Amino acid sequence: MIDDVVDHVHRAARLQSPILWATDGFSTWKASILHYFRAKVENGRRGRPKLVEWAELHIVQLVKRSRGERIERRLAFGDLFEALHMIEVTQGKRGTVNTAFVERLNATLRTWLPALTRRSRHAGTDRERLERQFFLVAAAYNWVRPHRSLRIQVDGRWIERTPGMAAGLTDHPWTVEELLRFRVPAHQKAA
Length: 191
Prior knowledge:
The chain contains seven helices and seven strands, in the order H-E-H-E-E-E-E-H-H-H-E-E-H-H. With 191 residues, it is an alpha+beta fold. The protein has two domains: 98 residues, no CATH class; 93 residues, no CATH class. It has a three-stranded mixed sheet. Strands 2-3 form a two-stranded antiparallel sheet. Strands 6-7 form a two-stranded antiparallel sheet. Helix 1 packs parallel to helix 2 and helix 4 packs across helix 5. The radius of gyration is 19 Å and the shape is globular. The chain starts with a helix and ends in a 10-residue tail after the last helix.
């Protein structure tokens, strides 16, 4: 599943664009990210060209030890200064390495998709159905539900935003009806 997630992000990313991954200490994340985010370097010789990791790839890890009593933040790949700069630019303030956003998404998915919990009467055996449900929950998470952690102050009042608003993709939280009726314009569909 990790490879599927990393491959999906890789396909959506622009070649050599700055990428910051914040993961837990599970080593499979780093291995998968380094496998997918590589580019061919032609050397003029015959044979397979050398594959080199993207210059703007950064991986930071947050590892909780002793039941969360001790937290270790570390750079797993890339440049720490650039990684911290990307955190500051995307959060609008000086930030720190954290996995709170993905942990909140995981908790939301486990709440809304019982098949993802360890002990469930709704085992996720039908992958296609589970993927459709996952897509709907993730879409609602990003477009419909405002998040307190993404709030900004406008004209003296606080406005909670959705991740879609924070990314500048929409100017308002969508209704569920808007989400379900939305169609990607034909000129924007991938070939």
